[in-house]
């Protein structure tokens, strides 16, 4: 049965199918130079068979294909995102399924690695997801997930501080309903969810995605970083944009660019079976 959170995510991403990949591919990991997709793909190399949960428009799968993975698959709630994924030449042979991570349409022991980028933390009933991941993974198979971190830097926290009062103004029937699950956003909670399915304690790697750019570019990326921004009406967005550009003017560098960072965490483990 589809929950309200799943319905919200499906509808949002059907309308904005490339929003997440544009956000992630606009930035580079601070001090590293790779995108967050590339960091995650490199953590499961040299896995030959890889499944992406919440694969979106296939951006991460395309990176995995370029890294040499031979068998690729993805599952997502959004048919709009999957339509874009199917247009990627690198994914011509990938198995892309419209569905839920709680009910995977794959055989037991069929993947060397399962990955999820900013999606595992949004999934209902994560124990069911963990059980399905364990079922489709081979023994000592890897699971790696990037989840949202608790902090951000530069202009990003300014955006959120200004936006929160506006989010509270949104009528209840229009508010963003995208997850009731909080455990899968922190290390202890992820271990709590994964351990009963047979996984080792996760390793934990925080890093920052640098989104520094022209002020208008940063404004757009900040908007795409938070689902609740989509619930604001035109007048609220105009107020928020005006306040954001004014409140962040002092942060701009000498060449007029605006520093901004999105902090995330990478959890990685293996299946002990």
TrEMBL record:
GO BP annotation list: methylation
The protein, known as: Class I SAM-dependent methyltransferase
Keyword Oxidoreductase in annotation: no
Pfam families, alphabetized: Methyltransf_11 (PF08241)
Similarity annotation: Belongs to the methyltransferase superfamily.
GO molecular function, a single term: S-adenosylmethionine-dependent methyltransferase activity
Species: Amycolatopsis rubida
SUPFAM superfamilies in the cross-refs: S-adenosyl-L-methionine-dependent methyltransferases (SSF53335)
Annotated keywords: Methyltransferase, Transferase, Ubiquinone
Superkingdom of source: Bacteria
Domain Methyltransferase type: 51-144
